[in-house]
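Good morning C.,

I know you're traveling, so I'll keep this short. The sequence:
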Amino acid sequence: MKSLGNFPDPFIAEISGQPEAIRRAAAGLTEQIRVLERVAAIGHERTVVFTGMGSSYDVCYPSVTALAAAGIPTLHVDTSELLHFRRNVLADAGLLVTVSQSGESAEVVRLVEEIEHRDRSPYVVAVTNGTDNTLARLAGGVLDTRVGTEVGPSTMTFAAALVVVATVARVLRGGSPMDATSETQRGADAAAASIDALLARPALPGELTAWLGDRPHSVILARGPARAAAEMGALTLKEAIGLPIESLQTAQFRHGPLELAGPDLAAIVIATEPETRDLDVGLAGELVALGAAAIVVVEGGETPEGVMRIDIGDQDRLLASAVSILPAQLLAWKLAVERGRPPGSYIRASKVTTRE
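The tokens, ready to paste straight into the viewer:
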């Protein structure tokens, strides 16, 4: 992992720390089995709601998608919208899964404070990095991602939260807490190994910045569970280097934004979902034919000529985004280095948002 430069700054150190963070989060689940047993007891007879802000919202995509595919009534609502406009849906919810890396996000804390005394309020599970925070004290049950200190844009916390939230989803799909934990641990081992393999390619960050070049428009496209990586990847590039990049559901890109295709566009297409892999890989080929630069992130299989291919190997669908986001993270780091910006530093935003 140190082949990328012996960790010359905290941001690349945290990017490189993701495999260990994933393994640690998975291992820590066995010590938190009672919270998972409580989730199993509540079940999904009533609606399940997942909420968070920023990266904490993004980590919910794979689990919400998997539960909906299983026919389980599941909502994915960012906490600000839930707090100010959609709170009444919680009257019919049995479980509210709140994700906040700090446990201090303004919207999440206020939401839980305001619903805890209602006659019909859901059981609140908090997924946080550590348990000494306001959300953890307010929630009915707490699942600690066990990341520890992180100072830059969410990397280790994103990956570890994926692990924990995925385990909640496995329990809600009917798995026993122990079986769900074991399945997550196997997937976490595979994801961590794949990240290690990509980090062992010291030329990759430079290849990514060369691929981007001076193109003024960029986008990350994905569908289904992979949207976690697309949304978080775009957020990382905005936070770490101020790159004006957009994240879109891949099919939505055809409904108008396809007009951007051409020599000024760079597109990362995450094509890891089997239902739509051929569609997504095909789009990457179309973009290259129109003069755009395209990266396609895949789990094996053929890819069109002219695209930059990044193969992440077979992954657990609930955890694949922890691996497929890596090109965006490395691109953000290398751009910061090349442009003279302290990697992973904030200029206007902050790690913890305490204002709504």
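Safe travels,
E.
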